[in-house]
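Attaching the record inline, Q. Sequence:
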Amino acid sequence: MDINTILIIVATLVAGLVIGYLIAKSLEKASASKLIESAKSEADVILKQAAAEGESLKKDKILQAKEKFIELKAAHEEVILSRDKKMAEAEKRTRDKESQVSGELAKSKKINQDLEDKIKDYDFRLEFLEKKKVEIEKAQKSQIKQLEVISGLSAEDAKQQLIESLKGEAKSDAMAYVQDTIEEAKLTAQQEAKKIIINTIQRIGTEEAIDNCVSVFNIESDDVKGRIIGREGRNIRAIEAATGVEIIVDDTPEAIILSCFDSVRREVARLSLHKLVTDGRIHPARIEEIVQKTQKQIEQEIIEVGKRTVIDLGIHGLHPELIKLVGRMKYRSSYGQNLLQHSREVAKLCGVMAAELGLNTKLAKRAGLLHDIGKVPDSEADMETPHAILGMQWAEKYGEKPEVCNAIGAHHDEVEMTTLLSPIIQVCDAISGARPGARRQVLDSYIQRLKDLEDVAFGFNGVKKAYAIQAGRELRVIVESEKVSDEVAAKLSFEISQKIQTDMTYPGQVKVTVIRETRAVNIAK
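Structure, as predicted:
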């Protein structure tokens, strides 16, 4: 193919491209004009629709505005009507108030007029009374002068004589009243005292703990007993030297006896032995160490016991040393009666009795708890002082009130009683200690006295039964009616009382009652 042909082809292609481009442009222009025409027509349609919708919306808004206006107008009219109604009511109330005030003013004017009239009347009467008073005084003076002339005495002399006569009558009346009061008090005092004491005893019930001078330490086997004794008894001697307790080892199986009058030492020894046996290491050095630790433990326990006691009794503000003394009373006994239990019981008795008599119950409990603290002395020098005096000295030393100190010192009559609290402590101490069963020695003597009383009654002829009752204060004797007549029964009562009086020693009085009963029995068949 030659160049001319190629050129022709190229020219043809270029011409075709140009023609195609021109045709495409003309077609595109035609389509664009059509699009513009259709867009204009659509815009006209949209504008027409928008105008129509705007008109309808405008009509709706106008209608809504008219409706809202009508509603607001109706509400406004209601508010105006309400206000008018309230104003009418207020005007009515105002008119009512005005009429009421007018009525009150009229009443006030009337009352004021009445008061003025009464004041005038009172002034007139007062002037009249003043005149009458002056006239009466003149008449009285003239009568007094006439009486002085008639009697020959002045008014002062007559008054003095009248006063003297009235004094004499008053003294005689007062003496008669005092005498009647004393007689009535004598008749009722003993009965009231018995009533208070009996009520107090009935309202208090405590357990009595009987302490001994020995404690038994139980062991598991005789091998342990040998370890406690040690080589040639050195462990026993070390324990006795450290605690001051006598240790008795005999043939009693599985038991060792600890003997000491001091309960604290005995308790230290018992706890120390328990710790040594539990630990297994028993030798003199270990014994001393354990005893020292146990003593500190017992001292702490004593303080805790004292604190619990004062808290239970409701006693506050007690000195720490006095609390310690109260705790030490747990390991002291008096005639077999535990000292702490005895003091607690006395405190409760004192509180009840003080309440019955209208006295201070807290002070009474305080004095009752502390009345026997002198029985737990710290040194040999203190043991030479009577326990009541020693307790009073300690109470004074640790800041107790004078009433409490005097009650402690006077409960065994070592010092003079100066307050009503002192006899209460003395009585309650006697009630707690002397009641049958409280102390071993008292119990033994009490049982023996009852038996001796009954034996005295059985020594007479005709006695069928005899009962000692009311803690030995009454002997009730039942006789056989066939052997003893009424006259003999009276004679028998006298003879038994004389026999008791001559042969027995007893506190107070013993009432002897002889009972003779006659029965007539028949059987209806």
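The first strand starts at residue 214 and ends at 218. DSSP finds 15 helices and eight strands in the chain.

More tomorrow.
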